[in-house]
Amino acid sequence: MSFDPGMLHNNGHTAYANGSGPGIRETGVVEKLLTSYGFIQCSERQARLFFHCSQYNGNLQELKIGDDVEFEVSSDRRTGKPIAVKLLKIKPEVLPEERISGQVVSSIPLHLDGKSAPGQVPTGSVCYERNGEVFYLTYTPDDVEGNIHLDTGDKVSFYMETNKHTGAVSARNIQLVKKKQMRCQGVVCATKEAFGFIERADVVKEIFFHYSEFKGDLEALQAGDDVEFTIKDRNGKEVATDVRLLPQGTVIFEDISIEQFEGTVVKVIPKVPTKNQNDPLPGRVSVRMGFNDKELPFGEKDTKTKVTLLEGDHIQFNISTDRRDKLERATNIEILPDTFKFTKENREMDMLSAQRNHAVRIKKLPKGTVSFHIQSEQRFVGVVEKEVVGNTAKNISPTKGKEKESEEGVIAYEDCGVKLTVPYHAKDLEGGSHPQVGDKVEFSINEVKRTGQQSAVSIRVLNRNASGAKRLHGFVAALKDNFGFIETANHDQEVFFHYSEMCGDLDNLDLGDTVEYNLSKGKGNKVSAEKVTKVAAVNGIGEDVGGTVMTGKVIRPIRSVDPSQTEYQGLVEFSEEGWYPIMTTHVKQFICGSKVQNYPFGIMSMANKSDCLQKGEQVKFQVCTITQTGQKMACNVVPQRRAMVECVKDQFGFITYEVGDSKKLFFHVKEVQDGLELQTGDEVEFSVVLNQRTGKCSACNVRRVSEGPKPVATPRPDRLVNRLKSITLDDASAPRLVIVRQPRGPDNSKGFNVERKTRQPGVID
To answer: Where is this region: Disordered (predicted)?
Structure first.
């Protein structure tokens, strides 16, 4: 806007006021600037003058708050108040002449440049260092030379300018020295022996990096990791330096649409790529978008499942857009179910198996749709001619993983007057009961579709063969690696059996279980059990259990605890003090003494079948009578063990209790009842169990009876007490405590004080 001095009086203003004559000009600083007017603070005197924007001689867009201006003083005709007219902007003085090197710490926002109101020009800031101190200066877009945009971190040089009215220091004539080295992101796409390659996130390009440039654990670096790096030129090629790991998922190359599209495959991926094929996305799908058909590429990784695609397949998919070059492709491709209705391919039904033929385009059917067998609805009745011989997978030793093939059995039956035989397997038996030769059974017939081979299934025993060997009852007394022992029904002997003779699941067999078996003689006339079958529990220990609970001592354990003894049964000794009659030649007399009685016991006598009773242990028991023999035996035997905890470590400990050759008994902390934490010296009750595989004993069901003495702090030795008493403050050789730094609180207050003391100015605590 140009200024015409002749308009001064036409606008109703006088050329002078406040004693200043016409033509005298003053200087001041723009203090406030609005759309059509503003205010100036005079430099030579204390005055604040109004001015209208029409009185400014220059581009009003360049005028801002803080600018130095020169003006004349006039008065308003209506109000008589002094006003400023004929304004001119004064070019600021740049000091010093020497350029200063610094760095941009806050760049000017791009979205505000050129859009702010008059007087609200956006600013940035730069910093520089002088004598170890860092100073900050503001700048505006007009202060940058070359009309370029500066970014945070750019190296710059500039002059300093001091506003003589406000004293504010700012940067002027800013020149760019060096742009900040930008950090790039990417994903490691390949790793070699001493170098690797990164797929960049800013452009569709890979960049080389050497392992010496990786800042982190090189052993943990692998393909697919997100990284950031700096690009540098070396020998005319770009390389990545200062490579650092980023959190997984930081780098994103593409955006996948939420909406799913339907289309048709128009070109499939070749099974054998040609030598000249360089396209990583050789497949094509056609999709209708709006009113036009569009082809989208896809690659091998874009199919949601590893299904073989054919031309013409009806599919659904998402569209992926690469952020770098905006390339669109089809991804998450799935075949729609109606595709198979329109294709002319031959479809077969089968179940998954290991075959040489290669199946493609597999479609999952409901369970039970495909069957290889036909099972008859009719039930047949027959007699077992041959038993199943050998083990099933369930009847192997728990500690050995070898599997033995089982030989099939044979059942004879009649169908329409014709005598027939059919094989059967142990897996087709119902109820876990194994039939024997001569047993009457009921079954169905299963036929294999491919071969026509028949076998008996769903086999159920109707009647046992009464002419066979007598079946005996017993109780499992011991379980070893691949064999065990059975306590007879009279509880006085044990019978050996091998796991191969077990009919049923060996994993469900425990100590004390009731079993049924036959006796047989092997090499050396040794008796063993065969055809061992677990049956429902029976009253195995006897009847007429006495109500009196007696206390005794084990004088002989059972044979499973001490294999060196010949007798199977253990013995409990009961001693009772009292007056007992004796017969002399002429009269009956009473004497005072102790009556000792011994009661045998076996595995079924134990209240806890896994408990391991040792010789000399105190027990509580009751007396019962064996039904078959009338013999009296100990039953419901419960050991009375108490001992001290010797030590407790992380997850285990030891009890001072002698078992065999060891004077310490191991226990695990999970065996401690009520979740208590035991300490050394605690008195505990416990049970002893024998590990059948290792032959070692350990404690279980550990219960604390009483707590041990608490540890007492050891007093200081007399020599140390006498030494401390002899030390004086004047002793130069005595150890001294020197305070290096007084304690302070988190708010810089005096430490360790409940009440905060207020410091008085000039007073030192």
So the answer is: 742-765
Whole-prediction pTM: 0.37
- Residues 625/542, Cβ–Cβ less than 8 Å: yes
CB neighbourhood size of 476 (10 A): 22
**pLDDT, tens digit (0-9, with 9 covering 90-100), for 73-91:** 888 888 888 999 989 888 7
Buried b (16+ CB within 10 A) or exposed e, 358-391: eeeeeeeeeeeeeeeeeeeeeebebbbeebbeeb
Nearest CA to 81 among 153, 144, 157, 12? 12
Mind giving me the DSSP string for 565-605?
-S-SSEEEEEEEEEEEEEE-SS-EEEEEEEEEEEEEE-GGG
Element (H, E) at 718: helix 718-726
Is the distance from CB of 146 to CB of 131 less than 8 angstroms? no
Helix, coil or strand: residue 221: coil
Q: How far apart are CA 446 and CA 444, in angstroms?
A: 7
Host H or E run for residue 284: strand 283-289
Residue-wise pLDDT for 488-517, tens only, equals 888 888 999 888 888 878 888 888 888 888
d(CA 205, CA 195) in angstroms, rounded, equals 17
Distance CA 391, CA 393 (A): 6
User: Any idea what DSSP says for residue 466?
Assistant: T
Whether the Cβ atoms of residue 392 and residue 419 lie closer than 8 Å to each other? no
Alpha helices for 387-465 (secondary structure H)? none
pLDDT per position as a tens digit, 624-644: 888 777 888 888 888 888 888
Contact call for residues 529 and 517 (beta carbons, < 8 A)? yes
Q: How far apart are CA 341 and CA 413, in angstroms?
A: 49
H/E run at residue 647: strand 643-648
User: CB of 50 within 8 A of CB of 83?
Assistant: yes
Q: Is the peptide bond before 557 cis (omega within 30 degrees of 0)?
A: no
Picking from 474, 472, 554, the residue whose alpha carbon sits closest to that of residue 511 is: 474
Q: Single out the residue of 450, 446, 429, 451 nearest to residue 351, CA to CA.
A: 450
Residues in a beta bridge with 666: 654, 698
Number of other CB atoms surrounding residue 274 within 10 Å: 8
DSSP 61-84: GG--TT-EEEEEEEEETTT--EEE
Per DSSP bridges, beta strands 527-534 and 483-488 are unpaired
**Cα–Cα dist 429/436, whole Å:** 12
Model confidence pLDDT, tens digit, residues 549-590:
888 888 888 888 877 888 888 899 988 775 556 665 565 555
Buried b (16+ CB within 10 A) or exposed e, 684-698: bbbbbbbebeeeebb
Query: In the structure, what pLDDT confidence band is assigned to residue 433 with cuts at 50, 70 and 90?
Result: low
- Contact by Cβ (8 Å): 528, 520: yes
